[in-house]
Design brief:
This protein has about 170 residues and is an alpha+beta fold. About 35% of the residues lie in helices and about 30% in strands. It is elongated and about 90 Å long.
Length: about 170
């Protein structure tokens, strides 16, 4: 064997042995409604502040989120979302930009998210939004029905019939 080939082979083996494994954040490709069902909370909000820290020795990012709309779960108007720091799963969202977040509640009560937690705000609201005004629509419908029935019974009592034009004779 040539010395140049042995040196190149040794360099490749050494590079492979000392390199760390690539860790990409792998997100499940599930429909938004299934992801919403599996989450503990879902909100549409804006990141207004962030800081770094540690939890049990692991580097973490803490994002302060102003909630614009609650889609699922009982959350405050302002909440802190904890996520990994220095990984491919970091939550990277521009400040003051509306985004959807699917969150999980940690055993210590903290809200946890990763890059897989990010969803389009419009899709999230469409998937998790309840129909608005349902009870109001029912009440308005019943009022209209009652008015029509009252008007009909009043006409029956009076015995009056509308004067309709006669149909043309053929």
């Amino acid at each position: 064997m040539r010395p140049a080939f042995v040196a190149a082979l040794a360099a490749v083996v050494l590079a492979l042995a000392t390199s760390s494994a690539a860790h990409a954040c792998v997100c499940m490709a599930l429909p938004i409604d299934e992801r919403l069902d599996e989450s503990d909370a879902a909100v549409v909000g804006r990141v207004v502040a962030e800081r770094t820290g540690e939890v049990r020795g692991a580097p973490q990012r803490f994002l302060t989120v102003e909630v614009d709309q609650r889609v699922k779960g009982d959350v405050e108007r302002t909440l802190v979302v904890r996520g990994p720091s220095g990984t491919d799963c970091d939550i990277t969202v521009p400040r003051n930009r509306q985004t959807g977040l699917l969150l999980t509640k940690a055993p210590d009560g903290a809200w946890v998210g990763t890059t897989c937690s990010l969803v389009d705000a419009g899709e999230l609201v469409a998937a998790g939004g309840e129909p608005r005004g349902g009870p109001i629509k029912v009440v308005v419908g019943l009022v209209v029905l009652a008015l029509v029935l009252l008007w009909s019974f009043a006409r029956l009592r009076r015995g009056s019939r509308p004067q309709l034009p006669r149909s043309p004779s053929i």
